[in-house]
Amino acid sequence: MSSSNFPGLTRGSVMKRYGVLSLAASLGLATLSPLPAQAADDIIIGYAAAVTGMYAPYDSVDGAQCEIDRINEKGGVLGRKLRLEARDMKSDAVMAATAGQELIDLGATAILSPPSDDTSIPIAALALPHGVAVLSVGSTQVQFPAASPENAYLVPYGDNLSAGAAAEYAIKQGYKNAVLMITRDIGSYGLATPEYFGAAFEHLGGKVLKRINYNTGLSDYRAQLAEIQAMDPKPDVIFGGFITPDGAVFPRQFMAAGLDKITFMGTDGYDDPGILEIAGDSAKMIKFVTHGFPAPGSALEEFYTDCTKRGYKIQNIFFGLAGESVLVVKTAIEAAGSAEPAAVNAAIKEIKDMKGITTDSITYKDRGGVPIKRMAVVEVVNGKFSKIQDILPEYVPAP
């Protein structure tokens, strides 16, 4: 079962569901808050979300709102309703800071932040003096919590954990030689994640033959293809911090050149149904490690099914992560017995073995803002994502 198998509303329905209620004065920030009447004692969860721009596939206002709907139907938290206040930061670091400040000014108990370190770090810096926790819904970059260790958290795993898992899986498949694809265009995800894979791959007995640079957003990677065509031996696996569309363009061009025996590996940047459409038949060359999979009977499948019935469209795994972000904040509020930001921030640091939405156990205690979580290895079968196995690697490269 793929997350893309849940029919529903279009991405444009985000604007219809929430409405553009106002523009932040002189700032151009779309305010994506729910329309129902708001009570003065609502607990505000802020969300500086990438509703538009290059990071939009890796954020989900709808996922967060669906979990809030579910929680509020059961009475809320500490007898109070949760309220989502979302702002479109348009995949821009400056706009992210502006959105973050607006949410702080609204009195947010916690803030959900965008899916990259360079857009989340400014928000955490602004929130720190107020004791407000900032949780990135989609970022796997350990550099974010390292930059603001007192109040910054990943909801996903760290890139070193997922890359280590990918390397362990690759070695167990008999892959001996690897090429790392490096890009500077998407922060540490494109720079550090391949190096984590390389470190783990070599630690486990593999060999990194070469590092090749590329730029994101192109439709032609013949230069990189030519470098690999000239190699002897050729790699068994090519690993990169791939996102849409690059992660699909590469295997498509390699297949066209007759190099269809090479496996392309990555992490959650591949967990976007748009990859399948762009890659076509070459999608079968792709394997990746991601946050979870909606297997029958799983919490993620139940969440997807329930939210679909409520009129939401499940875009990808980041819908589940957004819901999980709200669940982390709820758990912390309950543990603290308070919605006071500093108390909630302190309680997040003590979370251990919390049952999540994408995975069965989440621990923040003694993890420096980077949770330990079980992951899923996924491939493409007959044009659909298919789970291979769960994984928690034995060796994790240092961040």
From TrEMBL:
All copies of domain Leucine-binding protein, residue ranges: 43-383
Family affiliation: Belongs to the leucine-binding protein family.
Protein name: Leucine-binding protein domain-containing protein
SUPFAM superfamilies registered for this protein in UniProt: Periplasmic binding protein-like I (SSF53822)
Lineage: Bacteria, Pseudomonadati, Pseudomonadota, Alphaproteobacteria, Rhodospirillales
Annotated PROSITE patterns: TAT
Signal sequence annotation: 1-39
GO biological process assignments: amino acid transport
Keyword annotations of the record: Amino-acid transport, Signal, Transport
Highest taxon in the source lineage: Bacteria
InterPro entries the UniProt entry points to: BCAA_transport (IPR051010), Leu-bd (IPR028081), Peripla_BP_I (IPR028082), TAT_signal (IPR006311)
